[in-house]
Design goal:
The chain is 37% helix and 30% strand. The chain is of the alpha/beta class. This is Fimbrial assembly protein.
């Protein structure tokens, strides 16, 4: 299967689920169209992974991951067989290039492969390569093209777990791009109400934070930072003698000793706010921009009580936790109360599910 950056194969808009495979769990989202150009959240669910089944984005145990997907499919009740998956950004090489706009489709493919060989430190036989035409370049004679390449075995591992679970992989995306697609839908709506706003989005994952800054619909800055919610989980494991799974559950439910907030949570929130502040400063010093109008927090770590407040206080910038499902209709089986707490952690899975409508 080719590394497919943005295309769905097969008939138009067949049922498709987004599966976000992390080191700790797998999240599932299925969307449908509800008319008037709006979407409906049909189902969402997650299932924890056995320890070590996925490490740093690499699938170490295909059978365990496939079994977890099967449990998740049963739990969610979906009948969909097509799936969109994503690779960690660290496993994918992306490069924006410029090619003559007059190239035929066949000539474009040949030129892309020739250009790609300059940027990829592997034999072309060892990689899955795809590209997406972004649009015309500023000079109008060229076009912007985004290359994406990953080692074949990494792509094939994800395809293999899907097939072992009875699914067909239709899309292979990049985690940070999928999360961005989910959030971009909301930013576009807000930006239409006031042009020239600078939005900073922080996707706070388990081990990494993806930062991207959007101005008038364009990503003008992005970076990845080694910081995430697993640091707090590990502190809980060490301090209270819990297993990883127990720590995750108790962190989510707030079922921890009275000392937790002062000894562990508050220092972690301060550290998170410092990481956000540093990222904003890097943005100011490395670009012509001198302001950010709004910070959006998403990812599983974003729901921690007090995080948005402390980030706003330290940065002096309006800050909000954002749900990728905002503005969507909810299917009768979706628990609205539970969704409010869960939603920020589903940005990647939601972005993948949105590929159904590309």
């Amino acid at each position: 299967m080719a590394f497919n950056l943005a295309t769905l194969l097969g008939r138009k808009n067949p049922p498709l689920i987004g599966l976000d495979i992390s080191s700790f769990d797998i999240k599932l989202v299925e969307l449908s169209e509800s008319g008037n150009k709006t979407y409906r959240l049909d189902r969402y669910a997650s299932e924890p992974l056995p320890k070590g089944a996925v490490l740093d984005g690499n699938i170490e145990n295909i059978e365990q991951v496939a079994d977890t997907i099967k449990k998740l499919l049963k739990k969610s009740g979906t009948g969909a067989k097509n799936v969109a998956l994503a690779m960690p950004a660290s496993a994918v090489i992306t490069k924006k290039i410029y090619l003559p706009a007059a190239l035929s489709e066949q000539a474009l493919e040949v030129q892309v492969e020739s250009e790609a060989s300059q940027y990829i430190p592997f034999s072309m036989d060892e990689v899955s390569l795809d590209f997406s035409v972004i649009g015309p370049a500023a000079n109008e004679e060229d076009m912007e093209v985004m290359l994406a390449a990953s080692r074949k075995e990494k792509v094939e591992d994800r395809v293999a777990v899907a097939e072992a679970a009875g699914l067909t992989a239709k899309v292979m995306d990049i985690e940070s791009y999928a999360a961005r697609a989910a959030v971009q839908r909301l930013i576009d709506k807000q930006a239409n109400e006031g042009r020239d706003q600078v939005f900073a989005v922080f996707q706070l994952g388990a081990k990494r934070t993806y930062v991207y800054i959007i101005f008038n619909g364009d990503v003008v800055y992005e970076r990845e930072q080694q910081f995430g919610g697993s640091q707090l989980t590990q502190d809980i494991v060490r301090n209270y003698g819990l297993s990883q799974d127990e720590a995750e559950i108790k962190k989510k439910n707030g079922d921890l000793p009275d000392s937790y907030e002062m000894e562990l949570l508050e220092p972690f929130l301060e550290n998170a706010a410092l990481e956000v502040t540093r990222a904003i400063q890097f943005f100011f010093t490395s670009t012509p921009y001198t302001r950010v109008d709004q910070i959006f927090l998403t990812g599983g770590c974003a729901v921690l009580t007090g995080l948005a407040d402390i980030v706003a206080e330290r940065t002096k910038i309006s800050t909000a936790v954002i749900s990728p499902f905002k503005g969507m209709e909810l299917a009768p089986g979706v628990n609205e109360k539970a969704l409010r707490n869960d939603a920020p952690g589903y940005a990647i899975a939601c972005g993948l599910a949105l590929r159904r409508f590309d």
